Amino acid sequence: MKKIIVVGSLNMDIVLKVPHIPAPGETILATNVSLAAGGKGANQAVGIGKLGGNVCMLGRLGQDPYGQELYDSLEKNKVNTEGIVFDDDLPTGNAYICVSDKGENSIVVNPGANSALDPEQIKKYEWLFNEASYCLIQLEIPKDTVEYVLQICQEKKVKVIFNPAPAKPLKDELLKDLFLLVPNENEISILCSGSATLEEKAKELLDKNVQNIIVTLGERGCMLANKEGIQYFPAAPFEAVDTTGAGDSFIAGLAVALAEDNNLETAIKFASYVAGLTITKVGAQPSLPDRKTVNCYINI
């Protein structure tokens, strides 16, 4: 299978089960607290590994028990860890996640060692990009690192799948000739401010030379926009228990299907089932399905 490289964050998730997402100034009681391996980068890498993909990750952990546990999770799920560095000064990143009885979530991230994933580390492991077909990147790591990775991918002709989360305004030059941008509704609204419709915002990004845009719409599925036009795809028919990690598993499914030489439409259908199975369980990485499970519902 074609090589996929993931550059991104690794976090230990502290998951709080709550009756509802608290409003500003509101105090509520959690009914349960649990720990789960997470971080957008690690989730995507593990998701690819569990689906049978050829995946390598660049990231940074603290020299602490959480860091070792996250590293072990990568290894267990067949992720190449040659690009993982343990930081002597900063702790492993954490994410504090409230999950409501309806499966909705709110997340606060403390970056920790992720904030030290700098261009120097990328330079040291630049050889890992050799012969890679796809690179997955997000925004839970420093922006200058993201910019440097995009530059390397352009030089080495690696197709980038960019998940702009947590969202922030981006320079137009970062989007030029980007293979695939995957925001959710909130994220595309930050990338394209104003009262334009979803389709108009997608067209605005296409005008900035993004090749393909997939906007994830939660239970309403997703929208694909490119030079061929705009298509909508339904979500897979699963009931949500916890939506944490759904976006990451969707992107993992996309990457694996594309690495197997499927077209975007087929990749989206496969990724929708991967994400749908993810939301039936609690936690990020523990809920990511393996290929055998996905194949029980859809086979490409």
Describe the protein.
By secondary structure, the protein is α/β, with parallel strands linked by helices. The protein has one domain: 3-Layer(aba) Sandwich (UDP-N-acetylmuramoyl-L-alanine:D-glutamate ligase). Helix content is 32%, strand content 25%. It has ten helices and 13 strands. The strands form two sheets. A nine-stranded mixed β-sheet has the order 5-4-1-8-9-10-11-12-13, with helices on both faces. Strands 3-2-6-7 form a four-stranded mixed β-sheet. Strand 6 and strand 7 form a beta hairpin. The longest helix is centred in the last third of the chain and has 15 residues. The protein is globular and about 50 Å long. The model has no long low-confidence stretch (mean pLDDT 94).
Quick recap of the structure?
The chain is of the alpha/beta class and 300 residues long. It has helices at 40-50, 65-76, 119-124, 143-156, 172-175, 185-191, 198-206, 246-259, 264-278, 291-295, and strands spanning 3-7, 11-17, 32-38, 54-62, 80-87, 93-99, 105-110, 132-137, 159-162, 180-181, 212-216, 222-226, 229-233.
Key features of this structure:
four-stranded mixed β-sheet; 10 helices; globular; 32% helix; alpha/beta; 13 strands; nine-stranded mixed β-sheet; 25% strand; single chain; 300 residues; UDP-N-acetylmuramoyl-L-alanine:D-glutamate ligase
**What is the CATH homology-level superfamily?**
Ribokinase
Number of helices: 10
Quick one: how many beta strands? 13
Strand count, sense and barrel status of the largest sheet are: 9 strands, mixed
CATH topology: UDP-N-acetylmuramoyl-L-alanine:D-glutamate ligase
Number of domains: 1
